[in-house]
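User: Predict the structure for this protein chain, please.
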Amino acid sequence: MNNSYILLRHAHSRFSSDDFNRTLSEKGFSSLNQLDFLNSFNIGYYFSSPYKRAFETINSSPIQFDKIVLDNRLRERKLSSRFIEDTEFEKTIQYLWQNPDKSLIGGESNREALNRILDLFEDLEERYSDKTILLSSHGNLLGILINHFDSSFDYKKWGQMTFPDCFLVDKDKSVKRIMKVTSR
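Assistant: Here is the predicted structure, written as structure tokens:
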């Protein structure tokens, strides 16, 4: 790879059936100071999911940025066209991790979601060289991407991700968790 990537999972958000406009919760806003350490990286470009909680995570944090580019390929993966109850959520995610080519009705498989974000990676690799690029997105999509680079990152490790959380994918495609403080 030509670049290094910081994968930023958004901070804790309020529950809403309007997935696109879900905002950060009070807990989410108060956790943003944890991201101050990202200013020590020489980040050249900032990309975010257009979903409000991912954008707010960068925009409301102490991260110093020039501009944030919204890219729809960073949106959260769609599980289904029907509402997934909280009681079904974990089983649904586990099933999809175990069956990466399967999808629920109206949803996106892990493989489809991975191909979408790899398309963004390909564009960024063609456009930039020797840059550190921050991608603000969602746990599901970022977990699938991390698994692509590190097969030991599985469903169990996905479940251990925090809000917010940060991982560095270096030029050698190694993945390292760089979040300093853990909170769920």
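The domain at 4-177 is CATH 3.40.50.1240 (Rossmann fold).
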